[in-house]
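User: Please predict the structure of the protein below. I'd like the answer in structure-token form so I can feed it into my own downstream comparison script.

Assistant: Understood. Taking the following sequence of 157 residues as input:
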Amino acid sequence: MENQGSGSAAGPSIGRDGPTRPTTAGEHTPKVVPPMDAVGILQALATLIREQSIGEMRSTKALQSVVHRDGRFDGRKVSHYLWEYRGEMILARVFDIETTGSFELVFELEIRDRVCEIARRYLTVPGGWDASDHAMREEFLEEDFERITRRIFLDQD
């Protein structure tokens, strides 16, 4: 037997036109809920994959631009390098989580493990890029300062 929308006050009923919901007057009006068919699910999945692919392409182009212009990060000029990297990612409209996650790719192999450890700590944290940026500066700024001091001292001889 088919329910024509005369459901009980306990909740919505199922009518010929789909589920119904109570109105303010206590009557039921039909509310059509589109069925999730295989085609709709596949279209949604295709859209998601396409958007993800576009985001990855933007991230890749930004990474290539930074490495082409500044080379791979070797621990020197950390503030400048982080500023350049972040600027490229903003121009490419890359999300913070992708920015933090792909940052390890621009580092020299010798320091990549240290960078990966820092990036993993802040990868899923809201505002992860800002926290990761701060941690990178702390990690490499002292080494950079010592390197500059040694170079200045040796140049005075």
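That's the full token string. The radius of gyration is 27 Å.
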